[in-house]
């Protein structure tokens, strides 16, 4: 092995060692930034957590209201079906559907979804 071969091998070894240390430094720097981001509430992390919780509560409230309305609607239909004569029942059902659609602006499920999307768009802007 000549002197130039030894020097080339030593240079390659040094380069590999330096490269691996640099990669380790980059990883450490990224980990430090990530730790800082989550530990000191930088970039308004707490504000975003509160907004997320509010949106979650609003969605849960909307879902509970929809379930309650559908249950009431179902109970009213069953009551009308049992108590009324067949012709009267058809008339009462159409009246109930008209009243429900005018109260909630159409189908309660789809209008609830539209409302939820509007709320998300408003909160995002």
From TrEMBL:
This is Uncharacterized protein. The lineage of its organism: Eukaryota, Sar, Stramenopiles, Oomycota, Peronosporomycetes. It comes from Phytophthora fragariae.
């Amino acid at each position: 092995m000549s002197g130039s071969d030894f020097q080339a091998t030593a240079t390659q070894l040094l380069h590999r060692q330096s490269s691996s240390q640099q990669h380790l430094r980059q990883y450490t720097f990224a980990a430090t930034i990530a730790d800082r981001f989550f530990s000191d509430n930088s970039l308004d992390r707490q504000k975003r957590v509160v907004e997320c919780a509010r949106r979650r509560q609003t969605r849960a409230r909307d879902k509970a209201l929809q379930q309650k309305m559908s249950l009431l609607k179902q109970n009213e239909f069953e009551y009308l079906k049992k108590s009324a004569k067949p012709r009267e029942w058809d008339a009462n059902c159409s009246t109930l559907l008209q009243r429900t659609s005018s109260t909630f602006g159409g189908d309660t499920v789809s209008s609830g979804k539209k409302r939820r999307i509007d709320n998300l768009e408003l909160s995002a802007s």
